[in-house]
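Reference record
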Amino acid sequence: MEPLRGPDDQAGEVLALLPVIQQWVTTRIRSMGLSVRQCVALETIHHGATSPGDIARLWQVTPGGLTGIIDRMEERGLVRREPDPSDRRRARLVLTPEGEATRV
């Protein structure tokens, strides 16, 4: 009978797997032609962020830092900017069908 492993042993095994998991995820995302940030942005929009400002607040960055990421996703047809019906000064981000299908 195998001896019981404690939480420290289990935590050590999980920590040892993290680099392998990170490499797998990064390889998978890059094989789709996305950056890791683009992939996370798609998920963030899918889960309710509707503007660059929403994403910036969640990521704790400036909205200007997201412009390039969103521009490249828009050029690929993954997202589109639409006028926000409740505030014409804002653009609302919407995943396209291709953007939904591209999510990991």
Summary: The mean pLDDT is 88. The helical segments are 7-31, 36-46, 52-59, 67-75, 97-102.
